Amino acid sequence: MERNNVITNYKGYTDNELIDTSRIGHSSLKASTYFIFPEGQLNAFNTCITTFADAKVKAGNGGKIEIYAKNVARINLENELTDITRMVNQQAKGDLTVLKSSGFPLYKEPESYPEFPAPSIIKLKSGIAHGEIVVEVPAVKRTRMYFIYHAPVPVPEEIKDWNSILSTKHKARITGLTPGTQQAVRAGYIGTNGKINLSEIFTIYVQ
Length: 207
Known about the structure:
Layout: H1 15-31, H2 41-60, H3 64-92, H4 96-101, E1 123-126, E2 133-136, E3 145-152, E4 163-167, E5 171-174, E6 182-190, E7 202-205
Antiparallel strand pairs: 1-2, 2-5, 3-4, 3-6, 6-7
Helix pairs in contact: 1-2, 2-3
């Protein structure tokens, strides 16, 4: 697991989000006893916040000059915020209590999806060419892979004896099948623990 850190890049924040985050951070840092900054840095940070907030108001009813001034003020605030948050991360050394005291948002850990329930339905249709079918499994976010098993009817008792396909997409094309035969298909999603919960059997006649 990576060390805990606060966010250091705020380019994707809206103007209001940037101002609010900066104000909360500045207020929290002034009250926190965990951090040491060079003399005058927090005052400079506050000046950047105020300058950008004022420039934003003026740009709302202003022209190109006011908008340009706002954009410059935003860049200055972003840069100052990056410097401040990097220092926070360096001094906190991953300690959650210390990081939270800064008032800045934390990087969220990636959500873990150990396993997924089996697909309740699989769509099967004939492909363009003879001996071809198209398998469509309901799309699921954050699955590592889609696992598709297929076999001619009557199917083998053991799933390990079926043909299998690994796909990063929820649609797969299976070729080289014998026209006129019935093909059985099962599918599942691969979670972070590697376990696969397979669907019931769905069948289609190969054209």
